[in-house]
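2024-03-11 09:14:02 INFO worker-7 job=invfold-0412 stage=load source=structure_tokens
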């Protein structure tokens, strides 16, 4: 039964096809849903990789993950868009990374939040490691 749940939890790869269809459609709502889904699924996968040794001790983990991913992806629920709107966007606004609809930076009117984020992501010259 465990392999069956693993197979079901990996069927999310069909979301790739739905994402392509959403990109090709003229509507914007489905694009937002699928972008939010991929952001949240990436975060879930990263969290799962970090906490794998702990999650191995939780026997219902794959069932919970399956239900959560189904809630994120099914159009009846639009869970990914809900979580993005309710939690992720609020955190981005709080830290000054996201702009509001009028082009102003939230929480950072002079753009310091974005500048800090870019400085964190982009390495400075001379700090790059030689491979």
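2024-03-11 09:14:09 INFO worker-7 stage=emit residues=131
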């Amino acid at each position: 039964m465990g392999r069956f749940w693993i197979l079901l939890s990996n069927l999310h790869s069909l979301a790739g096809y739905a994402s392509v269809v959403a990109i090709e459609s003229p509507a914007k709502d489905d694009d937002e849903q699928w972008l939010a889904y991929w952001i949240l699924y990436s975060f879930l996968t990263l969290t799962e990789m970090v906490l794998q040794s702990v999650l191995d001790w939780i026997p219902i983990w794959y069932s919970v993950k399956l239900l959560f991913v189904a809630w994120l992806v099914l159009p009846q629920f639009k869970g990914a868009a809900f979580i993005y709107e309710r939690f992720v966007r609020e955190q981005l606004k709080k830290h000054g990374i996201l702009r509001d609809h009028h082009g102003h930076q939230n929480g950072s009117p002079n753009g310091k939040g974005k500048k800090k984020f870019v400085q964190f992501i982009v390495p400075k010259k001379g700090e790059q490691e030689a491979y």
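2024-03-11 09:14:09 INFO worker-7 stage=report msg="The chain has a mean pLDDT of 77."
2024-03-11 09:14:10 INFO worker-7 job finished
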